[in-house]
Amino acid sequence: MTRVRLDVWLVRTNETRPDTAALALEELDGRERERAERFVAPGDRLRYLAAHIALRRVLALHTGTAPGDLRFTRATCPRCGGPHGRPELAVGTPPVHFSLSHSHGRVLIAVAAAPVGADIQRSPGGGTVEACLPALHPAERAEVERRPASARPAEFGRLWTRKEAYLKGIGTGLAHGMSTEYLGTDARGRPPGWTVLDLDLAEDPAYAAAVAVRAEGVRPPEVRERGASFLRAAVPAV
């Protein structure tokens, strides 16, 4: 069996500085900057910019292309055939697949040689768990409900990130529905042909994170952790 390489990066951007906006002029394209301007809260705008700068810098390391020279497109949606599937690099042979997620100062990026999805979420409060439980697969809901009340947010977070990572990987996002496939603790019941992995974020216990790769037998990756200085440091040659 040919093993698919999976690289995962975690960038902590909670110390993002205002000069991030200036860096965005150099490394992000017009569409990314335009979307950033739609955020009303300055903090949300900076976090969006930081996440996309981090993505470009990670992809630069994997492709040998300068961050500002990378061009993105969208894959065909597997549900309707429209041009709004998962983000892709416009060129690349062999293709480099990637996925981006960010939550409250944490940016998670997965890069692989096969379709991949990544998701990170800060653990929700009990009220959020109860409100969102009906969206899950019935067997997943039962798994959460069997846990003590104090443990339910963490269990729900693990389930939710697995689901979002998988849905990003197949290219539909939440439009596919959260209750269709089972991604609970029994790996035997998970979608065939995919490996779904929880990530160990020992230094960030308030977060849950997962990756999903369209390949079997993928080993849990070492998470490459970087601080906010990664956004300003020179990108080393590959």
Structure overview:
The protein contains six helices and nine strands, in the order E-H-H-H-E-E-E-E-E-H-H-H-E-E-E. It has helices spanning 20-27, 30-37, 42-63, 126-132, 138-145, 152-170, and strands spanning 6-12, 72-74, 87-89, 97-103, 106-112, 116-122, 195-198, 207-213, 223-226. The strands form three sheets. The protein has a four-stranded mixed sheet with strand order 4-5-1-9, covered by helices on one side. By secondary structure, it is of the alpha+beta class. The protein has a single domain (6-231), classed as Ribosomal Protein L22, Chain A (Alpha-Beta Complex). Belongs to the P-Pant transferase superfamily. Gsp/Sfp/HetI/AcpT family. Keywords: Transferase.
Number of strands: 9
Largest sheet: spatial strand order: 4-5-1-9
Structural class by secondary-structure content: alpha+beta
Number of domains: 1
- Total of DSSP H or I helical runs spanning 4+ residues: 6
Low-pLDDT segments: none
Our measurement of the CA-to-CA distance between the termini, rounded to an integer number of angstroms, reads 28 Å
Mean pLDDT across residues = 88
Question: CATH homologous superfamily?
Answer: 4'-phosphopantetheinyl transferase domain
Helix fraction? 25-40%
The CATH architecture term is: Alpha-Beta Complex
Features:
alpha+beta, four-stranded mixed sheet, 6 helices, 9 strands, 4-PPantetheinyl_Trfase_dom, 4-PPantetheinyl_Trfase_dom_sf, P-Pant_transferase_sf, transferase, magnesium ion binding
